[in-house]
Each structure stands twice: as structure tokens, then as C-alpha cells.
Amino acid sequence: MVEVAPERFEEMVTEALDGLPAELGELMDNVAVTVEHGPGPPGLLGLYRGIPLTSRTTAYAGALPDRITIYRRAICAVCGTENEVVEQVRRTVVHEVGHHFGIGDARLRELGW
């Protein structure tokens, strides 16, 4: 386990989001990415809650933003170095953004995410 300051961890999440291809960033719609510094649900490094883009219909309007939550303590607990945290944050952000685009866990695992 490695300890990463909350501010540094938030920078890592921002860097991971900034590292996404610009085309994906432009397609992301009505989604908020947050960091949870307390303990998250057991076994989860990140969590997507919302209506994936592929499930939205013409009736989709006025909905609260989808939420992607990245769990700092859970990620730090599975990493041994800050560099490992950076990589795990990147992988977790990509995984949860994949859910926003309607990609399920099985397909994300096939793709290596």
C-alpha cells in the first residue's frame, strides 16, 4: 500500500482524463468525475452510475449528470508505488469512461481495461 495525498491523487485523475483522446472527451455528455477519499465499496476501484450514451433515447432530457467515482484509498491499497497508482488511476478512469460509452465489464476485460 502506498499513501498519496488527496490533492496529488486528484491531479492524477485529471491527468488521466486529459490523456483521453480528444474525440472521446468531446463525445462525453452530462457526466461528472469525482474522487472519493474515504473507503469505497469493497472490491471497487471506481464506479460508474448513470445512463450510458448507448442507452439514451430522444426522451433523455433534464437528467442529473452521470457520475464516475474514483476511490483513492482502494487504489492506493492495491499499489506499492506512486507510479503504480498513476497507472491504476489511468486504467480505472478508462474503464469507467468505457461504461459511460456503454461498454460492459466483459468487453472491457477483453480489451485489457
From TrEMBL:
The keyword Hydrolase applies. Coiled coil: none annotated. CDD domains: MMP_ACEL2062. Pfam families: Zincin_1. One of its GO terms (biological process) is proteolysis. GO terms for molecular function: peptidase activity. Keywords: Hydrolase, Protease. The keyword Cytoplasm does not apply. This is Putative Zn-dependent protease with MMP-like domain. It comes from Nocardioides panaciterrulae.
